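Hey everyone, long-time lurker, first post.

I ran two proteins through the pipeline my lab uses and got sequence/structure pairs for each. Pasting them in order. The first:
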Amino acid sequence: MDVQKLQKMQAASRTGGKNAPRRKQVRKPHTEADDQKIQAALKKINVQHVPGIDEVNMFKEDGNVIHFAKPIVHSAESANTTAVYGRAQNKELTELVPGILPQLGADSLANLRRLAEQYQQLTQAQQQQAVNKAKEDGNDDDVPDLVENFENGDENKNVD
């Protein structure tokens, strides 16, 4: 290649200096720096690790539950602050019912009763629809009467 062309290309591709284009800075939405800031803020209020917690459930007004399995929990009683770390899952209240009953408050129990009533009404309506459909079909489910005696079928055959 020509030396002059190389010098022109090199001059055109400069990355800094006067009148040079600026590069965009790309920020990731969640970085370790954010975690460090949160940890520093929690240290200021003297949070302590709370051992022995197997699960955390946060009840929403719409009847759903934010469920943390095996979370890390830090708490500061003086600041009335609790921090929960871990993988959160949004679940319906009915999915967690057997093990969650001791944790339910009065309003959550009312929601559970309402859901149970809706479920009963739904199942009763489905059963009624099945009965009505069977009545409309008529006697299709009946077994037809026997016309012949099948026990003596071998005797009636002609053997050649």
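...and the second, right after it:
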Amino acid sequence: MVTPRRFLSDKLCPVRAKRERRKEARPGELIAAALDLFVEKGFAATRAEEVAARAGVSKGTLFLYFKNKEELFKAVVTENLSGRFTEWNKEFEVFEGSTSDMLRYCMRVWWERVGSTKASGLTKLLMSEGSNFPTLAEFYRQEVVRPGHALVRRILHRGIDSGEFAPVDVDHAIYAVIAPMMFLMLWQHSTPMCIDGQAVLDPETFIAVQTEIVLRGLSARPSA
């Protein structure tokens, strides 16, 4: 049996092998560190040297992988948000349930994969700082907002075409679906001023209730 050359090299020089594996992991480590700091401090207040320090590398090392802070932010958005839409669209291509079940699935999985994670703070960041960084705001619109709207539009058209949903203005109905998600993201990353201090808001229950409210409004009914 021939031992792979890379394996022999790793055995003969474990320090070099470890260094190479560390080098391969650095972009992911820098993206993770940047996500933490962008959500904690905002884009403008986050410095490149802070990201590098949190990732355990030098500032110079960060710029070997990302030419500036803007490119690092785009990588954070791509890794944590925009990359999800390809995954969801593939799932919907083979989805065999009703459109109501598809919408329930979409909103529940959104919470599991995005809403409940730190990445949900990126939306609040863009809402508060986007006007100061128009290039990043447009990138976010292209990579997150428009694909997100297209995904919801696809679900709504599926329901209308099958007769499950009443004909509606889809371009406006999209926001009825998105609004509960936006509320949860802002609630998670802001002082919860709009929540009764005595109340307990369970995000999963909130999403489930809001989904049923939307579905009742969309439901096709016999004409009066």
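Reply from user beta_strand_b:
Welcome! Quick read of the second one: The chain has two domains: 1-67, 73-224. The radius of gyration is 22 Å.
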